[in-house]
Structure formats: structure tokens, C-alpha cells
Model the fold of this input.
Amino acid sequence: MRKYIIAGNWKMFKTRGEAINFLLQVADKVPSSDLVDSVVCTQAPILRDCVKRQGDNLKVGAQNMHFKDSGAYTGETSALLLQELGVTYVIIGHSERRAMFNETDETVNLKIKQAFAFNLLPIVCVGESLEIREAGTTDEFVSNQVVKALEGISKEDVLDLVFAYEPIWAIGTGRTATPEMAEETCKTIRNTIAKVYDADTASKVRIQYGGSVNPANIDELLAEEDIDGALIGGASLDPEKFLTMVNAALKH
Ligand code: PGA
Done:
């Protein structure tokens, strides 16, 4: 019932030419968006170039934006501008932004509200550090991130929001969470959404797993009940690998 969503997070990789090349190779080959949502999230300066070449079934996302409409925020990007450029998705609260760029649960919440105000679909990242995982407090920590992210978000809007569960220790490390581990925390996220709204609403919200996803492990992750897609860094940079991972969603 929930449509899979496979999103590439290109981080600070790819030149304009490389990004365009990727889209020329991939945009017409991704399956119909009736079957699976396919997304690539690029650096801000090339968003327009990528939107122009996205095709019908592949959509473009930004990796961040500011929560204010406009103002003296040097170096930031507004939601208005993303909307104007034709961007569809925006990643909010990636752990790299939380760790290195001062992103907090509060700014994540403000950015989600701002995204909805400008018709952008937020991909909201949550996930624990290795210390938290080892201390056995992952559920509590991630639930708290989810509750804070959803403060003041309406039941209608939350249906358009995508959560990405990304354990920090699994990002870029080649150390993926086992499917069981990923499922357990994705289920915790769904139960938390049910507590904030209701079970029916929670059953409709999509939850991705992210952290060293690649063509070899995506199948077993997508087979899990509460995992509705993947947010993929490194492996999404390669056109063939990206297509393999999008097509993996069709098997489930
Ligand atoms: P990775 O990154 O797939 O390279 O681990 C995932 C992410 O940071 O979204």
C-alpha cells in the first residue's frame, strides 16, 4: 500500500557535467513513478540544471534549506527559491548537518513546516550514534527526534513526509544495520507516529532506511515490513547501481 521511495543523496559530490551525464543515462530508465518514487538530491547550484533533465519519473531534491522566508542569512537557500526552481523534495536534518552545521531538533521542525508552506516534500532524517546504540537507548532517542520533528505538523501534511532512519554509525562506513535492526527502529518510528496521530495515519507514512545501502543489500532491507525505501549516499552516485536499487523496489 505504501509506494517505495528510493532517493540518492549525492552530498558534495559530482560536478555539473557529471550530474547531467547521470540524468541523461538514468532519467528515462527509471520505472514509472506509479510504481516507485525515484529521487536524486544534488548540490544547490545545479538543482535547476537537474530539474530540467529529470524526466517524468525521476524527481530532484535539495539537501538542505533555511527555515525563514528570506533575510540576512549568507550562504543559505530559501524554500521559495527551491520551489521556483521546480525542486520536489528536500532532505531535512541529515546527521551530517546535525553534527557539522548546527542543525537541531528545533530547526528540523521549523524546516519541515517551511517545506510544506512551499509545497516541498521533506525527507526527514533521524538516527542514533554508536554510543546511543551501545547504551541501548536507540528507541527512546529516535522516538524523541520523531516527536520533536512532528510538533505542530498536521495529520494531512505528515502523509507527505518521508522519514529516513539513518543510524550514524552506518553512514559511509560500509557497516549496514542488519535488516532486523533497521526494521526494529523503523517500526519504533511508525509506532511513535501512531502515538502522535493515530495508527491509520502511521500506516501511511513512508519510512526509508539509510546507511551503506548498496545493490547487494537493498533487497533484504526492502523486504522488511516497515522499510519503504532507501536514502542512499555513496552507491547512488553510480548510474547502474542507482538503477539496480530503484528496480529492486519493484520486486517487493
Ligand atoms: P551512505 O550515505 O549510503 O554513503 O552510507 C547515506 C546517507 O548519508 O544518506
About this structure: DSSP finds twelve helices and eight strands in the chain. The mean pLDDT is 97. The radius of gyration is 17 Å. Residues 116 and 157 are 7 Å apart (CA to CA).
